[in-house]
Design brief:
Layout: H1 2-13, H2 18-28, H3 32-44, E1 48-52, H4 60-68, E2 70-71, H5 74-80, H6 97-106, H7 114-118, H8 127-130, E3 135-139, H9 145-148, E4 154-158, E5 166-170, E6 182-183, H10 189-198, H11 203-212, E7 223-227, E8 237-238, H12 239-242, E9 243-248, H13 256-264, E10 272-273
Parallel strand pairs: 9-10
Antiparallel strand pairs: 1-3, 1-4, 2-8, 3-7, 4-9, 5-6, 5-7
């Protein structure tokens, strides 16, 4: 499937090759195995969240999640809904801002279908094509709390196995325009390089911070994640299969509807206020 090709492209871009390992080891005067161990620790501790506003029970996104039990990507919403859901941030149509970004992200793999090619510029993507696109989330980084709440007061914390169908970029789609900042949780050279730079190569401190969950994964940007799934599934993220719990970022936020959602999908004990 095209999603798998996009993931394979990210794996190649983020690969911790021997040349990259050697270069980092020389720069920070570390053993090569320290670099490789750091990469494995990053993978093991890579936690993904997907944020949503979910202001109240009447919000379309909330209704879809509550009634259907899953999270769709924004292109899917635009293709299914006759109303205009597009906004100035993402422009949910062929050749819009998000579509152009996903050409970079997937090395054009998501734009190769005949159905996509037949669609007119500046119109919503055909539904089957829309379902191939990812849901966007973030690497959970408590130091970036204020960045997360801009995208929603509530975050779904995904299960570990979702890492196998996830890519990441250093920064969000507005700030990233380079394939050099692309990878996967396992093939995570950009994050290794970032963490070593932040902590000046202090490998013992870095290992301690990773395991304590107190680490800053990047200097001044959030790490955005792209979650894929088989396009024949109704939802990219299934609340019963893919979600560990819900994080409430704003303690003042009204949570009755979130508790109702969590209770329905047996996530009630996972709600956290941070």
């Amino acid at each position: 499937m095209q999603q798998q090709k996009a993931i394979e492209f990210a794996e190649k871009q983020g690969a911790l090759t021997e040349d990259r390992v050697s270069s980092l080891a020389r720069r920070y005067k570390l053993a090569k195995n320290d670099i490789k161990d750091l990469s494995k620790r990053i993978f093991d501790n890579f936690e993904i969240i997907v944020s949503r506003t979910l202001y109240n029970e009447n919000e379309l996104d909330y209704k879809t999640i509550f009634d259907g039990g899953g999270i769709k990507n924004t292109f899917d919403f635009a293709a299914e809904d006759t109303r205009t859901i597009s906004n100035t941030f993402s422009d949910l149509y062929k050749n819009g801002m998000l579509d152009k970004w996903e050409k970079i992200l997937s090395n054009n793999e998501l734009q190769k279908s005949d159905e996509y090619k037949a669609a007119n510029i500046n119109e919503s993507l055909p539904l089957n094509t829309a379902k191939e696109r990812p849901v966007y989330g973030f690497l959970l980084d408590p130091t970036k709390r204020n960045d997360f709440i801009k995208y929603g007061f509530y975050s779904f914390k995904l299960k570990s196995e979702i890492k196998n169908r996830t890519t990441f970029t250093m920064g969000n789609l507005i700030s990233s325009d380079s394939k050099d900042f692309l990878g996967t949780p396992e093939h995570n050279y950009p994050i290794v390089k970032s963490i070593l730079a932040i902590y000046s190569g202090d490998i013992s401190k870095i290992k301690e911070l990773i395991e304590s969950k107190e680490i800053s994964w990047s200097d001044d940007i959030i790490i955005e994640c792209q979650i894929y799934n088989d396009p024949t599934t109704e939802f990219i993220i299934d609340l019963n299969e893919d979600v560990d719990g819900i994080i409430t970022w704003n303690e003042a936020a009204r949570t009755d509807h979130i508790e109702k959602l969590a209770s329905k999908y047996n996530l009630i004990n996972e709600i956290k206020k941070i």
